[in-house]
Each structure stands twice: as structure tokens, then as C-alpha cells.
Amino acid sequence: MNRLKELREDKDLYQKDIAKFLNMSQNGYSSYETERLDIPTEILKKLADYYNTSIDYLLYRTDTRKAYPKSIMEEEQK
Prior knowledge:
434 Repressor (Amino-terminal Domain), single chain, 6 helices, 78 residues, 0% strand, mainly alpha
């Protein structure tokens, strides 16, 4: 199963809910979930933060769902 779909369904959300969070159309978000389009870096960051996971998890580079600790650079940008 697609990780984006799995994470979304774990929260009992619909594609339209995540699309609204990302300020995009449901069809646009669906293209990411079905892997018809590559996900832009900024969208990946938002999704990883929203689901409290890592971009690596979203991209199947790890099976560890837990988010990484925040970096010093990220904390300074706030």
C-alpha cells in the first residue's frame, strides 16, 4: 500500500482533507498518492511534519515511521 494513503487512512482522513491542508485540489493530491506525479520538496516537508514522520519514510528509504529529531538549522528558522 502507498505510504501516503496508509498515513491518511490511519487518521481517518479523505484525500480532500489533505488537499485542503496543502492548499491544492483533490485531483492534484491524488496524483501524488497514486505516484502519477513526483511530490515537490516543499509538499514532502509539509506532509512529513503533518504526519510526524520523515521524508525518508514517505519515500520508502526507511521503514522507521518515527520522525527524526529537529535540526539546529530548522529550529533557527522559526
